[in-house]
Amino acid sequence: MTRVAIGLVIDIADGLREQVAQYLSSLVPHMLNVLRNEKRKQDTKLAAIQSLASVSCYASQSFCQFYLVEYLTLLQQAADVSTKDAEFQNDPDTLDYLKELRASLIEAYSQITLGVQDSNSHAQFMPYVPKLFEFLYAATFLEKT
After folding, report:
1. Among 9, 26, 35, 50, which is least packed by CB within 10 angstroms?
2. CA–CA separation, 3 vs 9, rounded Å?
3. Hey, what long-range contacts does 8-15 have (CB within 8 A, 24 or more apart)?
């Protein structure tokens, strides 16, 4: 059920575009809770990352003002996990998930960057840039192997 709701958030954001900003307080906290919840399925978390990335791009001003720091913190935690391939060499399902997670994170960071530019929220974004580059470097290295 949660997965369907997340899909609807993506559809709503895509349909309303900038007007989705008026619904952020109803949508975003639930998506952030999905990311925080360790019991949620992996595919549900991937969908939540994608959903929040869409919302952050369409409603950049409001999203960056109220949710950017928390979302970046959660993405940073996910990025740290996504590059731990060595710990799961005997678990092909987890390795596949980590690869999908890296791809979702790269897409999310791309959309967030656009939102940060549009909303002039560079000061909030800058503390996360060093870890973002560490993640991109590690992800690139992992994809070569």
Report:
1. 26
2. 10
3. 9/51, 9/54, 9/55, 10/47, 10/50, 10/51, 10/54, 13/51, 13/54, 13/55, 13/58, 13/59, 14/54, 14/58
Structure tokens at 143: 């994809």
86-120 as b/e: b if 16+ CB within 10 A: eeeeeeeeeeebbeebbebbbebbebbeebbebbe
Residue owning tokens 């979702």 = 104
Query: Could you tell me the two tokens for 109?
Result: 């960071």
Task: Tell me the C-alpha distance between 5 and 61, whole Å.
Answer: 24
Domain coordinates in residue numbering, the chain: 2-144
pTM check: above 0.90: yes
